[in-house]
């Protein structure tokens, strides 16, 4: 086999997949697809089933229901499973697991030893340049920093030109600063290689920085699959609304086809919301919907505050007694117990049926 015999771009389709351990359903009828060359993310709290779903895609878990296809070809169903080694997928894990006794070159060619020597040399040289580590061929893993080792782990997984790259919390062992640098860098590398990939993470900022589409999971279900913008601004369930970013639900009443009456007064949206006048609903309010404004007569009492460098995040008690988040520029340093002016910037109404 030569390097040209495998493809680096694939479309993945997960249809109605369920997975069970000892009759306990862990993954429940999940469906999503990933276009070729795109990066998807499975995002959710610990124990929601992200790794289980990723392992099933890799071929390590049997399906209790559903099908997995790559480019229209059946990879797994309840009665069939293409063996993992025949799927041509690459994998990167949190535990970097480079072989310590092998050089960087030997680590990277591990999955392409059947290629000709010349092809191996060209592939390693190309990939090392891509990840900014040209000339590291003869070094050993212990002489590399954590970020460099993770880049090599990625390089090793990409070397055979996998049809799909699966990454399970690959950045969680790295410190925050390094992660912030490395994540967008790796996204660029994957885009440049047009490599389809799926990232598992519980960190939403990492998901936002890496993925074209994010599937938000909870308790074995996928609640929503969409862009970072969609899941933040147009969450389709209460779970997504509260898991992604900060937010509060204000018990409100519909007062027209594009407006609601809430603790913030009457709020008019820019589009019809689909609820009937008089209906009781909950309105999602994000910190960036309520801004500190010295000129405003609408006041809130600060009950908590967090300095975030570029801004302050305040918890403020509204005149109604309800407590909400509020954004302020970092120069507006007020104390807990102080009353500050608030202005409401909310015209995209996200409403949910009232919970009793
Ligand atoms: N081999 C197994 N046998 C039985 N139950 C398992 C097995 N592997 C995982 N589970 C259970 O399945 C559920 C989902 O686990 P999974 O590791 O997929 O979650 P996760 O979202 O990746 O969590 P984390 O972010 O903590 O890694 C958990 O309740 C876990 O205890």
TrEMBL record:
Pfam family of the protein (one): TOBE_2
SUPFAM superfamilies hit by this protein: MOP-like, P-loop containing nucleoside triphosphate hydrolases
Write out the entry's keywords from A to Z.
ATP-binding, Cell membrane, Ion transport, Iron, Iron transport, Membrane, Nucleotide-binding, Transport
Q: Which domain of life is it from?
A: Bacteria
List the Gene3D superfamilies hit by this protein, alphabetically: P-loop containing nucleotide triphosphate hydrolases
Q: Which SMART domains match?
A: AAA
One GO term in the molecular function aspect is: ATP binding
Q: Domain named ABC transporter: which ranges?
A: 12-244
What InterPro entries would the database entry show? AAA+_ATPase, ABC_SmlMolc_Importer, ABC_transporter-like_ATP-bd, ABC_transpr_FbpC, Mo/tungstate-bd_C_term_dom, P-loop_NTPase, Transp-assoc_OB_typ2
What name does this protein carry? ABC transporter ATP-binding protein
Q: What is the lineage of its organism?
A: Bacteria, Pseudomonadati, Pseudomonadota, Gammaproteobacteria, Oceanospirillales
